[in-house]
Structures are given as C-alpha cells and as structure tokens.
Design a protein that fits this description.
By secondary structure, the protein is mainly α. The protein has helices at 23-36, 40-55, 61-73, 78-121, 125-153, 159-164, 166-182, 187-201, 205-208, 231-245, 250-264, 270-282, 290-320, 323-329, 333-361, 365-380, 386-404; strands at 8-12, 15-19. It has a two-stranded antiparallel sheet. Strand 1 and strand 2 form a beta hairpin. The longest helix has 44 residues, at 78-121. It is globular and about 65 Å long. The model is unreliable at 1-17 and 210-229 (pLDDT under 50).
Amino acid sequence: MDSDNELSIMDISNDTRVNAYSLAALTRYFLKLGTFGFGGPVALIGYMHRDLVEQRQWITEEEYREGLALAQLAPGPLAAQLGIYLGYVHYGVWGATLTGLAFVLPSFIMVVLLGMAYQQFGGLPWMQSVFYGVGSAVIGIIGLSCYKLTIKSVSKLEASAIKSKWILWLFFTVMAVVTAITEREEVWLFIVLGLAYMVIKAPPKWLQRSSTPLSVLLLAGTGFWTVDPGKLMQLALFFTEAGAFVFGSGLAIIPFLHAGVVNEMAWLNEQQFLDSVAVAMITPGPVVITVGFIGFLVSGFAGAAVAALGVFLPCFVFTVLPAPYFKKISKNESIKAFVDGITASVVGALVGSVFVIGSRSIVDVPSAVIAVVTALALIYIKRLQEPYIILLAAVVGFCLKEYLL
C-alpha cells in the first residue's frame, strides 16, 4: 500500500483523530515543494493551501489559518514557518523538524552549487536574462495565489459577503496599502488590527470586567555557535540576528541583509548582493535561502551552512515553542476573532508585497505580457504545473533579453 494512504491515529487536543497521511508522506510533499516550489513566500503558502487543505485535505482550513497567523506573528521567513507549523499539527516536534529540513534542503543545495559556479566563472550575467522571464511569470503565479487566499481568508467577492465582512476587508485594504508603500510588513499593525477585531466581534471576559490583562509570550533566541573567532562567528551572529528579529517574508529580510552584508560588514559589493537575490528568486523554496549563497561567497560551504542555520533555527524555535499553547487558546472565541483579524491583515500585506515585487519585475510590455499569460494559463489549463511555466518563462526571457531587447 502506498504510504500516502497510510492511516495513523493521533491524539490532538484530547480529541481522537484519524490522519489520512503519514509523516513520511508529509515529508515527501515538503521535499517536492522545496525542489519545485517557485514564486517566493506568497506563492509557496498558496501551494500549501491548495495541496494540503483543498486537494488532499490533510490539514483543515482552521489549522492552516492558525499556522499562517502564528507564522506572521513570529520572526523569520513566512513560508518556512508555516511549513514547520503544518508539520507540527499532527506529528509534533518530529513533524516540524522533518518538514522544515525537507523544505529548505533542496534550495540550500542549489544555491551552494550556484555559488560554486559563481566563484568559478566570476559572475552570473545570464541569470539576469533568465530572471527577466522568471520574475514576470512569478508575478502571475503569486497574483493568482493571492486571489485564492483572499476569497478563502476574508470573503468571496460578492456584495453580500463583502458587506458582512466589511471590517476584515478594511483591515485587508489597510495592510495592502501600508505594505505597498513601506515595502515591509509591520508586525505591530497585525497585532493592533487583530486585537481590534477581537474587541469588536468577541470581547474577552477580562476586558468586560477589567481583570487580568492578556499576556503575550515573546520568546528570545540565544547564541548557539561554538566556532573559532573569525568570519564564521561573524556570519553566525549576523544571520542569527536576522532570523530572530526580522519579521515577515523574504521581502522584509532583504533590506536588513543589504545593510549588514554590503554597508556594515563589506562582505559583498553591490553587484554581488544583487546577484545573490537573483539566485534566490530563480531557485525554488524560500526566498530567504539567499543567505546560503551569501554565506558561500564569504566563507565557502561552511559559511553557507552557518548562514542558513543562523536564519532558520530561530524560525524553528519561534514556531514550535508557542505552537501547543497557540492551538489550545485558539479555540476561544475571542482568540478566534483575533486570528481572523490577523489573517485578513496578513493576506492584505501579502497582496501589498505582490505589488512591490511586481514593480521590480514588470519593467516593460513583454514582461507584463508574460505575467498575464502565466495567470491565464494557470486558470484555463487545469493540469499545467508551475515548474513548467517557470522553465518556459526562463527560456522566453533569456531569448528576449539576449536577442531582441
């Protein structure tokens, strides 16, 4: 019998559930997603929803939304945190560990190999031509993903649904505009909007009688490296700080990396940093895997490993430690309202991020055409998979830049 269909019985929150999948099946899924999942955090969390919630029904809509809210509240890369949480839901720490490793490992190997090529040949000019097409196709993919997430998390685009959920649509719009203007996701605003929706829809008893205030547990990471002083120690400290204190997706962490890697440490020059970002965008998996490429340029494979661990380990800790408490309190009506407000704000911020990414990727008429054709192809060609679109867009982009533009 195929292990995808194996049944394992788990005890979740004192309720007996039957899981229609095994830990091995979930690990294989995230290994595949890490190998072929292009498009950055917005697209990746969209793939998880489509595959695990809609199609396979391994994860419930409620569990997915809880994971998305927790991932946005905690520091670190959004898609990796959501993947870790979804692994934790039915299989605890082992599930979180294996899904996290499976998700990150393929793209880490790819950026190390590309780093070797970069060092050998002194640059990646062909990647800019490839990314011209890939970046445009990615906008089409993540734009469609955002639409699906919006109608699932906020409401359908119908007058009656919008009217009944107008507060969530207001939060959605506010976060979309703020993210598009500031080019970062403001975590404090997520919390404020979540609390506001909780007070409006389901005020907790403590608020009604002015009793003990709600407490929020903030976890702090500690250093864990025991290497010799030098660049490896500097890499460890810098990237652990990036993983522990920068909120949001890869889009949010890139300005932080630029300030440290180029301006403060002078490990890379401007062009090398831009090439590092390009490498992350044309490889599958989380965009923040660019840290592996940067680490490799600074100090070889050891530098790549240290940089990746520095970013992803705090992400793992900040996701797994609060997860059991977050799941228990999420059954409370007030907390549910808080999560609803957070989720609408998160999706709005993701839409704003698409605008920011699109403004950098859609630079002329041909790139806009590639993006639109990509979205239409995904809508009307049901069996078409994203990796094939990315490959075709890479070829088209390369030919356009090298021979026509």
